[in-house]
Amino acid sequence: MKVYLAGYNVDANILRELEEKTGKREDLTPEVISAAYARISRDPRPINEIRQSSREEIEKSRRSNSTIIFKMGHHSVAEHAVFNLDVLGVSRFAMEELEKFRLSSYTEKSQRYITLQNDFVIPEEINGTQFEAMFVDMIKEQNKAYFELFDKLKEHVFKKYADLAADPKKHNLLEGWAKEDARYITALATESQVGMTVNARNLELMLRRFASCPLSEVKDLGRIIYEQIADIAPSIVIFHEANDRDCNTFPELKKLAGELAGMGSNGADFPDVQLVEYTQDADAIIAASLLHVASDMPYEQCKSIVKDLSSEEQRKIFKTTWQNMQFYDSVLREFEYVNLTYNIVLSSACFGQLKRHRMSTITAQPYDPNLGVTIPEAIKEIGMDKYFQEIVDKTNEVYDAINKDNPLAAPYILTNAHRKRVLIRVNARELYHISRLREDAHAQWDIQNISRDMVQQAKPVMPRVFEFIGGKDKYNENYKEVFGCLPKVTQAVLPGARKIK
After folding, report:
1. DSSP letter at 114?
2. Phi-psi category of 73—alpha, beta or left, where left has phi over 0 and alpha has psi -120 to 50?
3. What DSSP state is assigned to residue 215?
4. 198, β-bridge pairs
5. How many CB atoms lie within 10 A of CB 28?
6. Which pTM was predicted?
7. Which of 236, 386, 476, 489 is the residue whose CA sits 20 to 30 A from 411?
């Protein structure tokens, strides 16, 4: 057995410094790895020797990439080339488009931990128009409200959690709680930044979607990203321009939806979190799949066995899968065989966290002021909810004015408190993951509430499947309830949790 380290992420500035000292090098490109790995299936030489050959013949490697990836259809080879991109000065609104891509990795500037500094994007659609002054004035008023709310919330939080405030090491934590509630009044135009890791195959898809997007900021973002990588990897990012599929499909669907509108029931009275579809007989399906993977029986035989088991015998199958787990362990992959679909109305602030669960299927409607806003309880506690709503009402007036002329850019003025309707489908394993992170007492209150509602609606329809679900702070408690004892290695107590009702 042999293992060679073929490559790893290196800061681009280091690579440039090396080139300044040693001269220009054509082989400083991730295309080398892609070209080498593309040849593995047909070249009998050891991989490390193939890589050396790829480094020595860059142009040949690039031609090989183009042939193997795009003419022969082996697109997965492009996934071996990976880019790390710093993305700065992008609005929170455009950031939602960037972070849609499931197989990329993102670490974004958090408005929960960093004090905002009045940085915002004026979209090209508004810049220089009759709406610019109105837009800027509203953003400034929102930001003024942010600092006023932050000051009052900070004082409130320090008093409410006096036990934590007594410890200077907890002051940043408490200030963070104040910031996370104050930010609900800030606009989607607020600037953000993100560190992104993406392979070439997904980057090509991203660039094609951005080129097809009607929003100028997103188009510009795609163009700038492509300029950064075009000379480095020309053979593995080729189909990056706009196409009919991405340009026309959703506008045509929107037109069709408009023609069909009014045929269904009105959604005004629907709850914020509603389980709309789920796999029937889910407990038996997962129990059977667990027997299947642990035996030599076909799945249908496993289903037949499970069908004849008592409730407690079925429960024993599930308990066997949980009894050796710790709070950081995932439930088994067999829990992915059943699904739940939810219709959720949630704030922009909350959506920013839900969208991170990219193994789910998440699609969203545009922001809609008619869905109202989410006002943090802490803002009500300090008596600033009327002031908050006044800012929201003014924001809605500016939105309405812009929306009549330019509906594409109007959402930039909406706040983190404004809401949208989301359709999310999760398998049972992913809901366990969401609950473990988001029902935890250390999670932000808005996503806590959403995830708790999701779990509460899931338990009645899949009682065996979700008997062990819960936030990681409740892991020991849940374990003891199911097994009558604590796990062999008990979870460390994590300080600073804020209990949310």
Report:
1. S
2. left
3. -
4. 83
5. 17
6. 0.90
7. 386
